[in-house]
């Protein structure tokens, strides 16, 4: 790194002094904090993004959002070249940059890292970073800080994509690097045309029990703005968008996180909506859950969570694959046995895992956090992953997609109108509708709607795939949550010693009991999850394990 570059960095860093006494950590969702203390962090992530772009010789994304957090918070995270989360190998560098005390220290860290990673400033393509932000008022000034960070690397270009959902930005990064059309207009186009394609392929005679209007709670966030754009050009779905942000406050008593955790109706919904098919997005539209308002229940809802969305998707894909495989059995030349897998975390309701296994699906568990699920899902030809909280997507391997393309062409000339051709076309349409970069509430919503129409299912029918086991989540404040070390996708505690044995003893007391504890990645607490055949039992198990955690780890 030459002297001119070094002095540019020192000068610009001096304009973004870090707050005193705060320690930042690049967690599962990037850096997140009260927006007023984030400027220096976002500026520094801008530098990191530019360096990452030079290192990978690809376009990188930088998203300013705090998702479902309070409107006064904000955050920043990086999208890697394929649209996935920042490589875990760079997370420690992100931490050290964010926490550097002054410009000299910052420069020192950059110089060391550039050397270690062998980042070459000359000869290659210059850095290019796509920027996005959600609707938070603090987003504009933070975006400016990010631009300054990016531009403090000589030759780096910052491209502002405006107010977008998190998944849109990830999609744009992925599409740009694949050399595909990558504007917001292209995103909408792809979503609308693949949805249309799925509707056109619905078998004759599927009942239209869900043609009636559905309602979306947009969390007063960016998802509502985008749905209103889509609504103007989409046919085949009658929907109303509420909580679009024109009146209410972002994530305040609304949105997927609220609905999933509290299991009550979001603001703007009432008994007038009893029985209707409703969906909730979170603040940056990367989570999706469905629900119905229960009659005479003072705002209680029936939740249809990420596990049920996963089950619906997996079932539909399995059905299409078996239609294609029937053809394989008839000894067509070009056969391919696609490996379909489903990825969940320990939070997945036990009833969903049982259901999926009984349906003949391969189920794998990973630790909590999108990056783990995503990585695992990529091991399959078709990997479907979801967290119970509604974040998830479907990944298609490029091998499988190439095979599918060829198959569609073959069938198009030899078996026009056949069930096999339709199944192949449906799978192709799913691969285009779903956002393969990251979980996307908008594309997820349209895929759910297309599949429900295909099956001729109401939300009630869908919800009856299986009955959730009652569960309870609690959090425990402890002195040091990192003292809890887990294994086997967080289903077992290996340290402190003895605690797992004690949890096992308690769990064994309850029919269908299951319980685990894990340190939160986003809050300074240890989380407890328990489920059992009855609600009271799940509650009791959770509270006794919370007590145990407190005994082993000492509370504040
Ligand atoms: C983050 C994760 C989410 C996970 C949650 C768990 C991403 C993009 N988001 O929001 O997947 O469910 O953290 O939070 O990875 P916790 O560790 O506090 O329980
Ligand atoms: Mg989110």
Fold blueprint:
Elements: H1 3-14, E1 31-34, H2 39-56, E2 60-64, E3 73-79, H3 91-99, H4 103-116, E4 128-133, H5 139-151, E5 157-163, H6 166-177, H7 184-200, E6 214-217, H8 222-233, E7 239-242, H9 256-262, E8 278-281, E9 288-293, E10 301-304, H10 306-329, E11 340-344, H11 350-358, E12 362-365, H12 370-377, E13 382-386, E14 392-396, H13 398-414, H14 419-433, H15 441-455, H16 459-463, E15 471-476, E16 485-487, E17 492-495, H17 499-507, E18 514-519, E19 526-531, H18 535-553
Parallel strand pairs: 2-4, 4-5, 6-7, 6-8, 11-12, 11-13
Antiparallel strand pairs: 1-3, 2-3, 8-9, 9-10, 13-14, 15-19, 16-17, 18-19
This protein binds 2-acetamido-2-deoxy-6-O-phosphono-alpha-D-glucopyranose (16G) and magnesium ion.
3D structure, described in words:
By secondary structure, this protein is an alpha/beta fold. It has 4 domains: 3-163, Alpha-D-Glucose-1,6-Bisphosphate, Chain A, domain 3 (3-Layer(aba) Sandwich); 200-304, Alpha-D-Glucose-1,6-Bisphosphate, Chain A, domain 3; 307-463, Alpha-D-Glucose-1,6-Bisphosphate, Chain A, domain 3; 471-553, TATA-Binding Protein. The protein has helices spanning 3-14, 39-56, 91-99, 103-116, 139-151, 166-177, 184-200, 222-233, 256-262, 306-329, 350-358, 370-377, 398-414, 419-433, 441-455, 459-463, 499-507, 535-553; strands at 31-34, 60-64, 73-79, 128-133, 157-163, 214-217, 239-242, 278-281, 288-293, 301-304, 340-344, 362-365, 382-386, 392-396, 471-476, 485-487, 492-495, 514-519, 526-531. The strands form 5 sheets. It has a 5-stranded mixed sheet, sandwiched between helices. A hairpin with a 5-residue loop joins strand 13 (382-386) and strand 14. Helix 2 runs antiparallel to helix 3, helix 2 (39-56) crosses helix 5 (139-151) and helix 7 (184-200) packs parallel to helix 15. The radius of gyration is 24 Å and the shape is globular. Bound molecules: 2-acetamido-2-deoxy-6-O-phosphono-alpha-D-glucopyranose and magnesium ion. Residues 28-29, 368-370, 387, 389, 391, 520-523, 527 line the site of 2-acetamido-2-deoxy-6-O-phosphono-alpha-D-glucopyranose.
């Amino acid at each position: 790194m030459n002297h001119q570059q070094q002095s540019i960095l020192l000068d610009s860093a001096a304009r973004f002094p870090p707050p005193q006494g705060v320690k930042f950590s690049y967690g599962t969702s990037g850096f997140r904090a009260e927006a007023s203390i984030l400027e220096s962090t976002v500026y520094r992530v801008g530098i990191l993004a530019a360096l990452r772009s030079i290192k990978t010789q690809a376009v990188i994304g930088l998203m300013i959002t705090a998702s479902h957090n309070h409107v006064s918070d904000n955050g920043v995270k990086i999208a890697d070249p394929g649209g996935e989360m920042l490589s875990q190998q760079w997370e420690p560098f992100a931490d050290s940059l964010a926490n550097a005390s002054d410009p000299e220290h910052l420069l020192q860290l950059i110089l060391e890292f550039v050397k270690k990673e062998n980042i070459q400033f000359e000869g290659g393509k210059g850095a290019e970073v796509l920027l996005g932000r959600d609707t938070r008022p603090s987003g504009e000034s933070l975006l400016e800080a990010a631009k300054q960070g990016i531009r403090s690397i000589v030759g780096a270009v910052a491209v502002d994509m405006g107010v977008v959902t998190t998944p849109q930005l990830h999609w744009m990064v992925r599409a740009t690097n694949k050399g595909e059309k990558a504007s917001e207009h292209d995103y909408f186009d792809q979503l609308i045309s693949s949805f249309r394609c799925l509707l056109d392929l619905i078998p004759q005679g599927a009942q239209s029990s869900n043609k009636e209007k559905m309602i979306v709670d947009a969390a007063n966030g960016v998802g509502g703005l985008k749905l209103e754009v889509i609504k103007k050009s989409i046919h085949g779905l009658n929907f109303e968008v509420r909580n679009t942000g024109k009146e209410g406050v972002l994530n305040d008593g609304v949105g997927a996180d609220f609905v999933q955790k509290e299991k009550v109706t979001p603001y703007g919904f009432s008994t007038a909506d009893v029985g209707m098919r409703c969906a909730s997005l979170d603040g940056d539209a990367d989570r999706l859950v469905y629900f119905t308002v229960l009659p005479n229940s003072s705002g209680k809802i029936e939740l249809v969570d990420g596990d049920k969305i996963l089950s619906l998707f997996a079932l539909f894909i399995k059905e299409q694959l078996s239609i294609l495989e029937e053809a394989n059995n008839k000894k067509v030349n070009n056969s391919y046995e696609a490996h379909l897998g489903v990825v969940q975390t320990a939070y997945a309701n036990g009833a969903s895992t049982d259901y999926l296994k009984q349906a003949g699906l391969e189920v794998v568990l990973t630790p909590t956090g999108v990056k783990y699920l995503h990585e695992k899902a990529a091991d399959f030809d078709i990997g479907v992953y979801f967290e119970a909280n509604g974040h998830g997507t479907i990944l298609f391997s490029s091998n499988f997609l190439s095979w599918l393309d060829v198959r569609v062409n073959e069938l198009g000339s030899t078996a026009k109108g056949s069930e096999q051709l339709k199944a192949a076309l449906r799978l192709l349409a799913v691969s285009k509708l779903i956002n393969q970069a990251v979980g996307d509430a908008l594309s997820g919503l349209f895929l759910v709607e297309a599949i429900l129409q295909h099956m001729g299912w109401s939300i009630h029918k869908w919800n009856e795939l299986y009955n959730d086991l009652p569960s309870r989540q609690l959090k425990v404040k402890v002195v040091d949550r990192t003292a809890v070390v887990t294994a086997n996708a967080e289903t077992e505690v290996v340290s402190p010693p003895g605690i797992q044995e004690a949890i096992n003893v308690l769990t064994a007391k309850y029919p269908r009991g299951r319980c685990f504890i894990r340190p939160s990645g986003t809050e300074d607490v240890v989380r407890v999850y328990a489920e059992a055949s009855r609600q009271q039992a799940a509650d009791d198990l959770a509270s006794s394990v919370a007590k145990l955690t407190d005994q082993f780890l000492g509370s504040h």
